[in-house]
Amino acid sequence: MLSVAVRHRLGDFALDAEFTAPPGITVLFGRSGSGKTTLINAVAGLLMPDSGRIAAGDWVMLDTAQGIRLRPHRRRLGYIFQEGRLFPHLTVRQNLAYGAWFAPRGAAREDTGRIVDLLGIGHLLDRRPGGLSGGEKQRVAIGRALLSAPRLILADEPLAALDAARKAEILPYFERLRDEVNIPILYVSHAASEVARLATTVVALDAGRVVAQGSAAQVLGDPAILPAGIRQAGAVLSATVAAHHPDGLTQLDAGGVALFLPALAREIGRPIRVRIAAHDVMLAVSRPDGISALNIVPGIVQRIHRGEGPGAMVVLDTAAGRLLARVTQRSIDAMQLVAGRNCHAIVKSVAVAPEDAG
């Protein structure tokens, strides 16, 4: 269990954040200036807060009431930065060995061969960082952090410096890290697609305070929170891969509802998360015919959030899960949408980006 309670003032900014999270990836999520980096710096020991307590299980790194303030090098942390920060004069093998060199004597260590296999970097061992892609460098950086026998891994927007192709390459490795390595991970992100795919727990921050905590589906699917702004709003559905079709589509089963997406490299029967952005959802009060969209999901309007501008957010409960639709207030009035009314959500298959399913 990861436990964090920190209070600190930096000029006009006040951080007052407290949360506990189970094993897995805990994502700090919010817009720029919400306090994500300040909080992770406090966990890393790069910032000594005015008061607080930080612990990973029974490993207490900070407890101001008890006078415990471990320096950064004594916190047993693995840190993954936006850039790999590998030693350019060392091979991949030597960079990994450097991480293992920091493991305390007698500490339980990960097997180097298993980590190399987990991250798919066996063919890179004799190469130097200058010959690696951005995604390959990050995979080596993850391996180096794991081999230092950390009690906690910190990842500060580790995909922010990568292009879309490199992000798609490395996301599955973070998923494997979450599922196969028994080390808690504190991950900073403001990208909803990363949060939807990776998070075991989401801690939403705004103005230095925790405004929500829960699963990705709970936090990203609540329009009352929207910690990263209205354009990040979207639902997260849990599904299983049902079939792969010869026309290049993958069929999912989400609570008995068939969803069609562009081909996914996942075996049949595998569970999967899918993020559907609110601005990609259209609504109809009756089931439409003769349209190109393949995904038509019946549901009931749960509530409507009207903004100050022309837009509004409609929350729809369906058998597949909760969906959000970003539409105009004019459309809501013309369709006479109110809570409790039957409605259909329409989602184009090609609207779901590859990084939103995993």
TrEMBL record:
<keyword id="KW-0500">Molybdenum</keyword>
<dbReference type="InterPro" id="IPR004606">
    <property type="entry name" value="Mop_domain"/>
</dbReference>
<dbReference type="InterPro" id="IPR003593">
    <property type="entry name" value="AAA+_ATPase"/>
</dbReference>
<dbReference type="InterPro" id="IPR003439">
    <property type="entry name" value="ABC_transporter-like_ATP-bd"/>
</dbReference>
<dbReference type="Pfam" id="PF03459">
    <property type="entry name" value="TOBE"/>
</dbReference>
<dbReference type="InterPro" id="IPR008995">
    <property type="entry name" value="Mo/tungstate-bd_C_term_dom"/>
</dbReference>
<keyword id="KW-0547">Nucleotide-binding</keyword>
<keyword id="KW-1278">Translocase</keyword>
<dbReference type="InterPro" id="IPR017871">
    <property type="entry name" value="ABC_transporter-like_CS"/>
</dbReference>
<dbReference type="GO" id="GO:0005524">
    <property type="term" value="F:ATP binding"/>
</dbReference>
<protein>
    <submittedName>
        <fullName>Molybdenum ABC transporter ATP-binding protein</fullName>
    </submittedName>
</protein>
<dbReference type="InterPro" id="IPR050334">
    <property type="entry name" value="Molybdenum_import_ModC"/>
</dbReference>
<dbReference type="Pfam" id="PF00005">
    <property type="entry name" value="ABC_tran"/>
</dbReference>
<feature type="domain" description="ABC transporter">
    <location>
        <begin position="1"/>
        <end position="232"/>
    </location>
</feature>
<keyword id="KW-1003">Cell membrane</keyword>
<feature type="domain" description="Mop">
    <location>
        <begin position="290"/>
        <end position="356"/>
    </location>
</feature>
<keyword id="KW-0813">Transport</keyword>
<dbReference type="InterPro" id="IPR011868">
    <property type="entry name" value="ModC_ABC_ATP-bd"/>
</dbReference>
<keyword id="KW-0472">Membrane</keyword>
<dbReference type="InterPro" id="IPR005116">
    <property type="entry name" value="Transp-assoc_OB_typ1"/>
</dbReference>
<keyword id="KW-0067">ATP-binding</keyword>
<dbReference type="InterPro" id="IPR027417">
    <property type="entry name" value="P-loop_NTPase"/>
</dbReference>
<keyword id="KW-0997">Cell inner membrane</keyword>
